Amino acid sequence: MLIQRSPNGIDLPFSSEITPREVFESRRRFIQHIGAGSIAGASLLAMAGREAFAQNGANPKLPARLNPAYSSMDKPSAYKDATTYNNFYEFGTDKADPAHNAGTLKTRPWTVTIEGEVKKPMTLDLDALLKLAPLEERIYRLRCVEGWSMVIPWVGYSFSELIKKVEPTGNAKYVEFVSLADKKQMPGVGSRVLTWPYVEGLRIDEANHPLALLTLGMYGETLPNQNGAPVRMVLPWKYGFKSAKSIVKIRFVKEPPRTAWNVSAPSEYGFYSNVNPEVDHPRWSQASERRIGEDGFLARKRKTLMFNGYNDVASLYAGMDLKKFF
Ligand SMILES: Nc1nc2c(c(=O)[nH]1)N[C@H]1C(S)=C(S)[C@@H](COP(=O)(O)O)O[C@H]1N2
Ligand SMILES: [Mo]
User: Fold this and answer.
1) 17 CA distance to ligand 1 middle (Å)
2) What gap in Å lies between CA 98 and CA 115, rounded to an integer?
3) For the whole model, what pTM was predicted?
4) Atom 14, ligand 1: residue with shortest CA distance
5) Whose CA is nearest to atom 5 of ligand 1?
6) pLDDT digit of tens for each residue in the chain (326 aa)?
């Protein structure tokens, strides 16, 4: 069983076997426990913040059953915020650019090629990806290295499902994720902020961690283009830039991939980039964060949590000096 520590410091034990009714009961007990037994508080948590979905509807539906074992108790961000405040440099560097410019991205037909150190290299189209494993809804916190965070109900399945399918060889020590880089569809490709294509990477055991989500949707719908349609990674314990968008290639490799951000500024963006309040970015502190949607004069900053609160991943880094391997 995975135990996720809530931001209040209360352990929330959920097992994937328990029924939705037990989940509801468990959430209700949790609410009573924290003394927020008001109807508003109860419905907020029990409904997993359904009001955050208010403005979806622009994309085809992609419903999935909530996996409470892997879901944050934080209130999901508004759909409007999650789809208009984005980082997707292929469409411009301003937070509003992706929503304005990503309409030109053609997401069907789409294929993802999986190659390298695997016994079964394959090219999967979107329908094959959608059918590869049962879709789950997972409410994850996403913490950007810039010092802001959101809470997003993603739809997808553990990347480990795909790993099983392609059967990595013993030489597969790392996984490289390559985003589409097509100047015709992506006006930001060619700009000198980054090297293209956008590349990210994980150690194979990180990629195998069940929290690593191959993501095809959010807020009950297929991904909006600006959020990395049609398929992206979401790695909730790492800074947002590790979660590559609009993936066309996945390579299983022997050596650590040369990731786009690490190439552009190695002293600022390490390979691991685990959320870590104790390791400052060279130009700013990482100790706290601004939750998008809570902005404003009186908004309090939130303390950033080690591994973004996902302590279940800690064993992946046992014995490593996380100040050195930032
Ligand atoms: N291909 C690609 N993937 C990317 C980025 C990018 O510029 N290009 N930006 C990253 C950064 S910095 C963040 S914070 C997240 C943002 O995801 P969101 O816009 O869906 O919240 O995407 C990441 N994935
Ligand atoms: Mo980011």
Assistant:
1) 33
2) 29
3) 0.88
4) 240
5) 88
6) 444 444 433 333 333 334 444 454 455 444 444 444 344 433 444 466 788 999 998 899 999 999 999 999 999 999 999 999 999 999 999 999 999 999 999 999 999 999 999 999 999 999 999 999 999 999 999 999 999 999 999 999 999 999 999 999 999 999 999 999 999 999 999 899 999 999 999 999 999 999 999 999 999 999 999 999 999 999 999 999 999 999 999 999 999 999 999 999 999 999 999 999 999 999 999 999 999 999 777 788 999 999 999 999 999 999 999 999 99
117 Cβ closer than 6 Å to some ligand 1 atom: no
Cα torsion angle, 277, 313, 20, 66, sign: positive
Q: Max CA-CA distance within the chain?
A: 56
Single-letter code of the amino acid located at 170: G
The two structure tokens encoding residue 100: 């304005």
**Which residue's CA is minimally distant from atom 6 of ligand 1?**
88
